[in-house]
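User: I've been trying to design a sequence by hand for this structure and keep getting stuck. Would you show me what you'd pick, starting by listing the structure so we're on the same page?

Assistant: Good idea, let's start from the same input. This is the structure you sent:
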């Protein structure tokens, strides 16, 4: 069974798969962010680590808009022309051409809320949404329209799915509890639903880069074939992968803390941790970290962890 076939079996509702898949992601640096250099580096990493699918990093953040000084400025946010996405689309096209016969290829996308933070700053978006959310919503709509064009082009090129990152639902993020569900979630769903309508392998990634989460309940009904969520909650607890499998009702990707033993370089402790995670895994599980791992993590370390997962058969 190929890596593609093994993962497709795990994602399906029938049949069995040969082994536990695994995948870890990292940024490769600006010298590998564009063109053939990016294509070659992604392929080199994919083959060197033996991971089970190709996840294409997105290295072209939404354009900065220095004029976003007040909430009322969001209606005139600078939206990039269609050619803005040409570079990442060419990287994806190259990887589909080179790797799709071997494995599933998925494209990273950031949520409209996260892209708004790229246009100004995370703190500024939060402040403006707390002050005048209806004004900011006009900008989020324009961002979503632009990004939807990118998603549709990825689908046209033949991508197998998306790694769909979202933020905005963290603990104490907004003054009003309904700000997330009213102004963030609807735009998430526009992009994610488009992906879900056309692709079989979409990963919902709940990102805690800026802040931790008190609960993941708002995301339980989000689109996504697989879920990848933070390792630790705001109260310091670390739910098991089987807890997330029960709550989300779909395959879980994760198990390892990107800042923990995976980043330490201590192979004995890491392998003990991996063995524990694999022994405690839910039925449909992909071994991974809770987010992008440090670029300092050695490829050999990642390969050794992937091989441990591949040595474990399906439950």
């Amino acid at each position: 069974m190929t890596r593609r076939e093994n993962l497709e079996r795990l994602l399906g509702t029938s049949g069995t798969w040969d082994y536990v898949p695994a995948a870890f992601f990292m940024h490769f640096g600006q010298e590998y962010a564009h063109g053939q250099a990016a294509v070659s580096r992604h392929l080199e990493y994919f083959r060197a680590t033996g991971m089970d699918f190709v996840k294409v990093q997105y290295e072209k953040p939404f354009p900065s808009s220095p004029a976003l000084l007040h909430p009322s400025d969001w209606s005139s946010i600078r939206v990039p022309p269609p050619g803005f996405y040409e570079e990442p689309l060419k990287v994806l096209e190259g990887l589909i051409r080179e790797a799709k016969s071997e494995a599933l290829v998925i494209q990273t996308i950031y949520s409209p809320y996260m892209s708004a933070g790229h246009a100004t700053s995370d703190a500024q978006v939060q402040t403006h949404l707390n002050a005048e959310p209806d004004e900011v919503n006009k900008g989020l709509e324009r961002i979503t329209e632009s990004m939807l064009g990118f998603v549709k082009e990825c689908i046209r090129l033949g991508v197998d799915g998306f790694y769909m990152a979202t933020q905005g639902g963290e603990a104490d993020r907004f003054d009003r509890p309904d700000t997330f569900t009213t102004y963030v979630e609807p735009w998430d769903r526009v992009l994610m639903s488009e992906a879900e309508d056309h692709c079989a392998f979409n990963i919902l990634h709940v990102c805690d880069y800026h802040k931790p989460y008190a609960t993941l309940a708002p995301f339980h009904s989000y689109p996504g074939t697989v879920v990848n969520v933070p390792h630790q909650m705001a109260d310091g607890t670390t739910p098991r992968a089987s807890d997330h499998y029960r709550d989300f009702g779909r395959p879980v990707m994760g198990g390892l803390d990107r800042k923990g033993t995976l980043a330490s370089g201590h192979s004995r402790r890491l392998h003990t941790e991996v063995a524990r995670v694999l022994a405690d895994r839910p039925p449909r599980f992909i071994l991974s970290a809770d987010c992008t791992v440090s670029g300092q993590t050695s490829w050999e370390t990642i390969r050794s962890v992937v091989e441990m997962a591949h040595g474990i058969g399906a439950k």
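That's my pick for every position. To get oriented when you compare it with your attempt: Residues 242 and 280 are 8 Å apart (CA to CA). The mean pLDDT is 95.
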